């Protein structure tokens, strides 16, 4: 049995490097829209049974959607993002949290925070890869199994971002990767 990690994914792997190159070509708005939609579709369903954290993450995604629809400002969104981050931290601090629930909460809160920090458009996927791997394979698999599942998840995310990407985006984000 491998020790469970809070993030999964090879930053030097094909999927991660392709994601980084593609993220660099997109605007903050495009990345935020994609990250929130991907988290809502792929990760949020993993915690449907955990009603309290599910509703908090669902509300955070709704707030980001409101921000993207110009119904609220970034200044108004920031406390919602902070609250989601705090909820994920409280789960981690409890030490009794299910690893799938914890990784999912981290993934969703980080995806939503792409509105503020564009590099989160990659970071949330590493938490999401852990959530998906632990959800599909259980908590007693080998590191090699988790790594394979994480790479598959990053490939799915890459395909999703490629489908959502704006060709010749006029205002791409400026990112300096620290990984």
From TrEMBL:
Imm-5-like domain: from which residue to which, for each copy? 22-155
Q: What is this protein called?
A: Imm-5-like domain-containing protein
Name one matching Pfam family.
Answer: Imm5_like
Entry-linked InterPro entries:
Imm5-like
């Amino acid at each position: 049995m491998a020790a469970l990690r809070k993030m999964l994914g090879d930053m030097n792997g094909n999927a991660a490097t392709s994601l980084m190159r593609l993220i660099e070509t997109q605007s903050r708005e495009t990345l935020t829209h994609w990250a929130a939609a991907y988290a809502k579709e792929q990760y949020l369903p993993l915690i449907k049974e955990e009603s309290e954290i599910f509703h908090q993450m669902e509300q955070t995604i709704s707030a980001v959607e409101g921000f993207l629809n110009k119904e609220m400002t970034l200044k108004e969104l920031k406390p919602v993002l902070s609250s989601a981050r705090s909820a994920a931290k409280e789960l981690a601090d409890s030490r009794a949290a299910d690893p799938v629930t914890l990784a999912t909460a981290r993934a969703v809160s980080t995806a939503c925070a792409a509105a503020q920090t564009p590099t989160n458009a990659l970071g949330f996927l590493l938490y999401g890869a852990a959530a998906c791997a632990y959800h599909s394979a259980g908590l007693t698999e080998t590191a090699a199994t988790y790594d394979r599942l994480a790479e598959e998840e990053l490939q799915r995310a890459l395909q999703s971002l490629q489908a959502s990407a704006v060709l010749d985006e006029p205002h791409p984000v400026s990112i300096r990767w620290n990984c």
